[in-house]
Design a protein that fits this description.
Strand order of the largest sheet: 2-1-3
Radius of gyration: 45 Å
Number of strands: 3
Oligomer: single chain
Number of helices: 5
Strand content: 5-15%
Mean pLDDT: 83
Shape: rod-shaped
Structural class: mainly alpha
Order of helices and strands: HHHEEHEH
Largest sheet: 3 strands, mixed
Amino acid sequence: DKQRRQLEAAVSEEQSNLQKAQRKLIEVKTNKEYSAMLAEIEAFKQKIAGYEDAVLHNMELTELRKQELQACERQVKDAEQALAEGRQRNELELAVLQQTLAERRQTREEAAQQLERPVIDLYTRLLTSRKGLAVVGIKNATCQGCFLSLPPQLIQEVRRNDRVLTCSHCQRILYWSGETLHTPSESGASELVR
């Protein structure tokens, strides 16, 4: 818009110069001066036409930019709405997660009160030394902390669940994850039956 106003001011100035030149044309006495004045008048007209074309081009660009600005504003509005909806979903999810965390902390505190002090100390020590993974399950006869095979006797003792047992390799506390054991004798017997 500023550029358009400057061009319009230049058009007015050139029109003023054109009018002055046309008034001087009446006062000209020789053909040479007359033709020079006509050339000057034509130059003013060309300048005016150039400025007017530039003003029209500028107006078209301004209109185009306004349309682009409106489209961008709609996109911003849509993005802000999506952001607000996402923020609201995140806040709801955070509230649910905080509620779940509070419940689990309460459950953890209740369970910790039922444990003996040496077990809690072992758990705390393992939690800090094993990157937050102190208790692991047994799957396919392997410790899920270090993924090394466990002796069958240790697996049976963990299944009994009558005391706290640790992996002989990584020292993490083991628990039975409910997987059924296939002993070699059972698999051999099933093959004999076939």
